[in-house]
């Protein structure tokens, strides 16, 4: 697969090099996924809060795919401090809930579970068990989301938020494992 050097302002999103296939798939998933969430939510794009919320939703969906890419993974594998900062700043689900008038207590539960488990997974960097633990915690997280009885559109966004931060980002997918 042919890779190109990404512009520096996109390094945090796509890493230092990326393939057209990975960029295209990321953008397509963000657009199609946002449209599907918009369609299911049946919310009108008639004010700044809704527009900002859907920009954040598109970011969640794009990151869910981009974080699995070789370029993004390699960028953060070399920068463990940046990986922790990235995990810490992910308040998207809380912001989306606030912007679209969803219960903040539920959003905070989803956010706290995701951030805490992502930190646990990140602490296992370089261990062969990292991916397994991440998948296990992701599955428990899905049970949590189902238990919370969220509106369908918010469930969709919450699942992809959790995948993005906990499984897609916190796991070093292309590392050399150590025992």
From TrEMBL:
Q: What is the protein's given name? A: DUF2878 domain-containing protein
NADP listed as a keyword: no
Show the stretches that span the lipid bilayer.
Answer: 21-41, 47-70, 82-100, 106-124, 131-147, 153-171
What organism does this protein naturally occur in?
A: Pseudoalteromonas neustonica
Keyword annotations for this protein, in alphabetical order, are:
Membrane, Transmembrane, Transmembrane helix
Domain of life, per lineage? Bacteria
UniProt entry tagged with the keyword Metal-binding: no
